[in-house]
Amino acid sequence: ADLIRESRDGLERVRKIVSDLKDFSRVDQAQWQDADLNAGIECTLNVVWNELKYKAEVVRAYDPSLPRVACLPAQINQVAMNLLVNAAQAIAEHGVITLRTGHDAGWAWIEVEDSGGGMPPEVLKHIFDPFYTTKPAGEGLGLGLAISLTIAESYGGTLSARNAPEGGAVFVLCLPASGEQDAAPDA
User: Fold this and answer.
1) Which of 120, 114, 101 is closest to 174 using CA atoms?
2) Three-state SS at 57
3) How many CB atoms lie within 10 A of CB 111?
4) CB atoms within 10 A of CB 80
5) Which of 42, 108, 53 is nearest to 80 (CA)?
6) Looking at the chain, which runs of residues are DSSP E strands?
7) Can you tell me the distance from the alpha carbon of 107 to that of 118, in angstroms, rounded to the nearest whole number?
8) Banded model confidence at residue 185, pLDDT cuts 50, 70, 90
9) What per-residue string of b and e applies to 12-22 under the rule 16 or more CB within 10 Å gives b?
10) Burial of 96: CB neighbours in 10 Å, binned 0-12, 13-18, 19+
């Protein structure tokens, strides 16, 4: 009986992982749609959970009234994945990753903050440059943030980075929620 129960639990975990991978990649939805960013973040968290669970506590501060964003959800999930994995890698031992969402004047935003060591000004200046990496040779191509910035800009949005006052780094993805915007809000 215990073996059957454990097998069923394992099968349910596999079903959930496959479902989340399908949702993450949106293989059956290659067209623009109005996406729920909060749901996309949750799906992405499930996909990268093994990368995060031993490194950080994840704190969620989602705006329940977050407007939908017209996009290809798989691309926004890719940005969220890059930000989450980078946040985990920035934490030396065990820390906190805080996820916030919100909106303002026609913009929806996702904020990923880590409790790592932050970035020196020289690193911060080049963080979105293609092939720029702070990792040892062979451990990263330096393309994740460059690709994420390109995706944000392709939607008329922005991706910014700054150091948090109490340490760590904060990345903010701003995307148009509806209509045309004059300028993205300050991150």
Assistant:
1) 101
2) strand
3) 18
4) 25
5) 42
6) 33-35, 56-61, 69-71, 95-104, 107-114, 158-163, 169-176
7) 26
8) low
9) eeeeeeeebee
10) middle
Helix, strand, coil in percent for the chain, rounding step 5:
40, 25, 35
Q: How does pLDDT run across 28-80, given as a tens digit for each residue?
A: 556 788 889 999 999 899 889 888 989 999 999 999 999 999 998 889 999 99
What confidence score (pLDDT) does residue 37 get? 94
86 backbone dihedrals φ, ψ, rounded to 5°: -60, -40
pLDDT at residue 87 in the model:
94
Res 16 pLDDT > 70: yes
- Give the integer Cα–Cα distance in Å for 29 and 67: 20
Name the phi and psi angles at 53, rounded to 5: -60, -30
- Extract the tokens encoding 157: 């949005």
- The whole-angstrom separation of Cα 11 and Cα 93 is 32
The per-residue pLDDT for range 83-135, each reduced to its tens digit, is 999 999 999 889 999 999 999 989 999 999 999 988 888 888 988 888 877 77
Do the bridges between strand 95-104 and strand 56-61 make them parallel or antiparallel, or are there none, so unpaired? parallel
Query: Which residues pair with residue 99 across a beta bridge?
Result: 60, 112
Q: How many residues does the chain have?
A: 187
